[in-house]
Structures are given as C-alpha cells and as structure tokens.
Amino acid sequence: xxxxxxxxxxxxxxxxxxxxxxxxxxxxxxxxxxxxxxxxxxxxxxxxxxxxxxxxxxxxxxxxxxxxxxxxxxxxxxxxxxxxxxxxxxxxxxxxxxxxxxxxxxxxxxxxxxxxxxxxxxxxxxxxxxxxxxxxxxxxxxxxxxxxxxxxxxxxxxxxxxxxxxxxxxxxxxxxxxxxxxxxxxxxxxxxxxxxxxxxxxxxxxxxxxxxxxxxxxxxxxxxxxxxxxxxxxxxxxxxxxxxxxxxxxxxxxxxxxx
Length: 259
Prior knowledge:
66% of the residues lie in helices and 2% in strands. By secondary structure, the chain is mostly helical. The chain has one domain.
C-alpha cells in the first residue's frame, strides 16, 4: 500500500484515490466479493473428498490434525473438551466470525495489499488485456509471499515447494480478483474479497481429515481444481463483456425524417 501510494503520488505525480480505484460506491458486486470465497471454500471441501485418504469430519478433526506438533497434546485435549461443551457447533461460530472479519478487519488488511495489486498494477498493466494482466499481477502477488511461505505460511509441512504452489495459486486466483475489480469499479470491494478469502479458506482444512497442505485446502490441489473451473466460467464472462457494444452517447436524438 505504501509503495503504491508513494509511486502514484510522487513518482508518477498522479492523483491517488480515483486512478487506484479507491471508491465506496456500492453495487451488487460488493456482495459477490464478500460471499464468493465462502462458496469457493465449500466447493473445495467437496473436491477434497475425492482425494485418496481424505474424509469429511463433523468433529473438525482437521483442526486438531493441523495443530498436532504445534501445541502440547494436553492443550489439544482441552480444546476438544471446550468444543464439546459449546452451545452450537464450532463450524457456525467460525462461519459467523468469518463473515464479520471478511467485511471488517480482514478487509482492512487486504487493502494493504490490494492498493498495490488491483490498484496500481491493475492500471499499469491494463493495456496488456485482461488475461495477460491477471497473469502478471498474479505472478508478482505470489512471489511477493515467498518469504512468508518459507516460514510456514499456508504450506507448513512443505515450505520450499510451497513457494511454487503459492505463486501458481495466486495466478489462478488473480482473474477472479481482476474481474471483481472491473465490475465493482473499486479496489475496496476487492479488499473485501481478499479479506473474506483469508477468513474462510481455513474452513476447508478444518472440516476434512487426511491429505496434506499440498493437496487439501483452498491453496492446495483441490483449490487449484476449483479455481481452474472458475476461470473457465470467467473466460465466457470476460468474452461476453468485451463483446458488449458501448452504450449510446447521451444527448438529444435527431427526430425521424418526415415523408
């Protein structure tokens, strides 16, 4: 965010808010940005169940499976006991928390990235066309995460191949983000999309057991499959938008000639 602001304001000497898409004008694509990560997460859970050794767990065994080795077994037992006495299933609590966080604190954190990706770079690469622009932004976005991935972000058990996985995942995810940016006409809406992904993607790991971080979860192979199918649908949507004739210019129309 800081880099985008500095380059836009003092290197390019351009206004910041308008050209970078900082707009709070609401439309239906804000709702799509907020809820589509949840739909994608459910789809990823479904695809994960087709992988060998992966099964659905109503007891959220995936949560304890991922925490094993990170915290003592005694703490894990206490967590299981606490979950068993909750008045509602933990899934619904996490779902509600994700809906709130994706729209608030996670969106603020997402804006810290998105002002650069779908703000500055979206405008700079616009002449390349939708797909090439999305590819370039996605590659930069993924490589930017490399230091964190090597420290265990997303791929705790496979940090080195995780860098390549994260880059490929960001490339697959980038067209959706660019499309929302295009339709919502706001980088703030894309920040909500980013925040909601960060809020919901963990559910795909908690509700299944088996597999590993390269296979299950939104950033894993199952997520790649869902995003690949989504990009096929986006290809038709982008093509339809590009073929839509421009609206006629406003102003008085000439009266039809009288015979």
